[in-house]
Amino acid sequence: MKMSGYERRTQAKKEAIINAVWELFTKRGVTDVSISEIAAKANVSQVSIYNYFGSKNALAKEVLLSYMNETIKGYEALLDMDLPFAEKLTLIMDKKQSATDEISHSAFSQMAWEDKTFQEIYKEIVHTKAISIYMKFIELGKKEGALDENIPNEAILAFLLSSVAVTGQAEYLQTSTEYKRGILKLYSYGLFGKGE
């Protein structure tokens, strides 16, 4: 169904607001940024922001959701590429590392990971969208012979989700880049370990 001119303008305004918020919040955090600054940066009225999002906290949650959705779309695109499974895994790990680095070096992350609602949003995304990507990843790995056919998909999924439990902690974001890379490598090597 085609969008009307009004719907297109509304969508464009929402995107401009989300982009402005991401830029401002990652540089200065949620508390230091005012709605009037967001409105000026997005070139919209403050009333539009309140009409679309309700509050600054609701807006911050929407931005986190938008960021995570974009990251997941990137993973989906990588899985659809015509590359060997091992190369896809390397690209996915690099993308995950970049996303983690971006979040952990932003002022936005401190508030996000201390807020229970943000943590709930993160978990909800993982348990809806991420699981379908993990299952696609597992099926591709088994099809190419990179993952052990004898390990049930549910066991591999549980292993992958345990990585989310580790990387989703606020303390993890505070660790060094080397530590984060090490954790991601351990999980990826664990996938390729061959049992007896």
Q: Can you tag this structure with a few keywords?
A:
196 residues; mainly alpha; Arc Repressor Mutant, subunit A; Tetracycline Repressor, domain 2; 2 domains; 80% helix
The overall pLDDT average reads 81
Helix and strand element order: HHHHHHHHHH
CATH class label of the largest domain: Mainly Alpha
Q: Could you describe the largest sheet, including whether it forms a barrel?
A: none
- Report the principal-axis shape: globular
Pfam family, one: TetR_N
InterPro entries: Homeodomain-like_sf, HTH-type_Tx_Regulator, HTH_TetR
DNA-binding region: 34-53
Protein name: TetR family transcriptional regulator
Describe the model.
By secondary structure, this protein is mostly helical. It folds into two domains: 1-54, Homeodomain-like (Arc Repressor Mutant, subunit A, Orthogonal Bundle), CATH 1.10.10; 58-192, Tetracycline Repressor, domain 2 (Orthogonal Bundle). Helix content is 80%, strand content 0%. The chain is built from ten helices and no strands. The chain has helices spanning 5-28, 35-42, 46-53, 56-79, 85-104, 107-114, 116-143, 153-167, 170-174, 177-192. Helix 1 (5-28) packs across helix 2, helix 1 packs across helix 4 (56-79) and helix 8 runs antiparallel to helix 10 (177-192). The protein is globular. 15% of the residues are buried. Residues 34-53 bind DNA. Residues 11-71 form the HTH tetR-type domain. Keywords: DNA-binding, Repressor.
Question: Short summary of the structure?
Answer:
It is built from ten helices and no strands. It has 196 residues and is mainly α.
